[in-house]
Amino acid sequence: MLSIKNLNSYYGRSHVLQGISLEVPAGRITSVLGRNGTGKTTFLKTLMALTDRSTGALVLDGQDISSAQTHQRARAGIAYVPQGREIIPDFTVRENILMGSFARADRKHVVPELVGELFPYLVENFDRQGGLLSGGQQQQLAIARALATGPKLLLLDEPNEGIQPSIVEEIERAIVRLNRELGMTVILVEQNIAFAREASDHFAMMEKGSIVAQGPVSALTDDLVHRHMTV
Ligand SMILES: Nc1ncnc2c1ncn2[C@@H]1O[C@H](COP(=O)(O)OP(=O)(O)OP(=O)(O)O)[C@@H](O)[C@H]1O
């Protein structure tokens, strides 16, 4: 579904992603793992053309998007849920979700029914200001906003970071459902190895801007985790 070849990415003169190649299979969850500061967020940002500059080849379902801008990549079907969520606090829940719909190719401004199924709290609180929601609810809101773009590939950056355990479970269930029931392809940046193992089919382990190991999740050994993730 997404073919990544020799991807390099820069902030100013700082060369952060160093030649990443990865095949992201359709309908699967691929987890991107590694210590803090190894470039996982930069990797997702680069897929959305959100760093200062990047080189390399990106082909999404046969469409070359290597030089496409962020809005064109969104229209091509990639949605991004950033770390820190970046919802708009003064907008209502509904308005925040509808923000995503502006990235749709068909410009349909609707809240997908799916949002109500995955996150009933959001539809029950459509008119609440986003800023009044808890961290976990804001994370759900950010995922809902991404779903409103009608994506085929969802990029999630540590969706459970700093979130209360009851909502973590709901979000984990939603991610698995999106994939298993709706066939959505997901790239998940994750620190929680147990969830990465449970949810994903494939993994990529990053170290200093490169992928140092990748494969089916069955090949994600304790030794690999120990070598590349413990401090
Ligand atoms: N906007 C930026 N400008 C300059 N350098 C940056 C910028 N954002 C990140 N970096 C640098 O790029 C490197 C990779 O950071 P990145 O946030 O991608 O890592 P990460 O693996 O996602 O870490 P974390 O888990 O802490 O988010 C780090 O050395 C970081 O300091």
TrEMBL record:
GO terms for molecular function: ATP binding; ATP hydrolysis activity; branched-chain amino acid transmembrane transporter activity. One of its GO terms (biological process) is L-amino acid transport. The keyword Cell inner membrane does not apply. Residues 2-231 form the ABC transporter domain. The keyword Nucleotide-binding applies. InterPro entries: AAA+_ATPase, ABC_transporter-like_ATP-bd, ABC_transptr_urea_ATP-bd_UrtE, BCAA_Transport_ATP-bd_LivF, P-loop_NTPase. It holds the Pfam family ABC_tran. It comes from the Bacteria. Keywords: Amino-acid transport, ATP-binding, Nucleotide-binding, Plasmid, Transport. SMART domains: AAA. Belongs to the ABC transporter superfamily. This is Urea ABC transporter ATP-binding subunit UrtE. It comes from Shinella sumterensis. The gene is urtE.
